[in-house]
Amino acid sequence: MIKAKKTRFERKMVLYGVIFTSPWILGLLLFHAYPLIMSIYYSFTSYSILDAGEWVGLENYQTLFEDPVFWVSIYNTLYFTVFFVPVSMVFGIALALVLNAKIRGQGIYRTLFFIPSLVPPIATTIIWLWLLNPQFGLVNHWLEQIGIPGPAWLGSEHWSKPSLILMSLWGVGQSIVIYLAGLQDIPQDYYDAAEVDGSSLIQRLRHITLPLLTPVIFFNLIMGTIGALQNFVLPYTLSNGQGTPANSMMFYVMYLYTNGFGYLKMGYASAMAWILFLIVVILTALIFVSQKRWVYYQGKD
């Protein structure tokens, strides 16, 4: 009798659990699972927003590999990822080390470096368009003061992506907060013992700080790589969605968006989305495999 009552009670609790979680479950199925499954199907069709389309098999993928702009968008995206992710990590770690120092007004400095990451991307774009203006921008003005002729920056095919990398460092404040959390998790005993042994600041940084910070670096490396591969707002706003000059700012997600909502080639865009998904999975898997060689977790041999 007691067992039967317990069984009924457990079933009742499960039912209540399903009822209370049903809004989230329905949202997951309707707004995530269903679009995901349908995008796979659409990638094999000529579907557009205005037309149901028809089954075309691998034609979308074949056309993609023959599309020169597709390869340009891949090059631009990989260029940005390869250069921005390491630079942003070095920049973030360096600033986190400085902001972790026990100095007066520490909280104020941390806030000042974090605030830029809260600025809306459109506002950031407007600010940097003014700073990097080749005629009256402050950056070129400062360069002229020291005798260096300023480049065209965003108006140059060769300087547009370096300019974008420079602009993107504006939002490094979020990763700085994570690095700071990792630095404060390192036991002070390690530094005290190393100082007693006569180690220098550089030696403590190399043999204590960086090794014990590698789990945080690993996390930011994965998140930074995924984010860089999906770079969209800044280049789209800077080039008005055109990827100018000479497609040097045409990034992968921009071209995907242009095909899907500009040319209404939703099947083509779905194929692009799944190729990007595979690229992200492969790169993430490679990073996970490599972490066994350079990531150190405290308490593990």
From TrEMBL:
Residues 74-287 form the ABC transmembrane type-1 domain. Keywords: Cell membrane, Membrane, Sugar transport, Transmembrane, Transmembrane helix, Transport. The chain crosses the membrane at residues 13-34, 78-99, 111-131, 163-181, 212-234, 271-289. It comes from the Bacteria. It is a multi-pass membrane protein. SUPFAM superfamilies: MalF N-terminal region-like, MetI-like. It is found in: Cell membrane. Belongs to the binding-protein-dependent transport system permease family. This is Multiple sugar transport system permease protein. It comes from Paenibacillus harenae. The lineage of its organism: Bacteria, Bacillati, Bacillota, Bacilli, Bacillales.
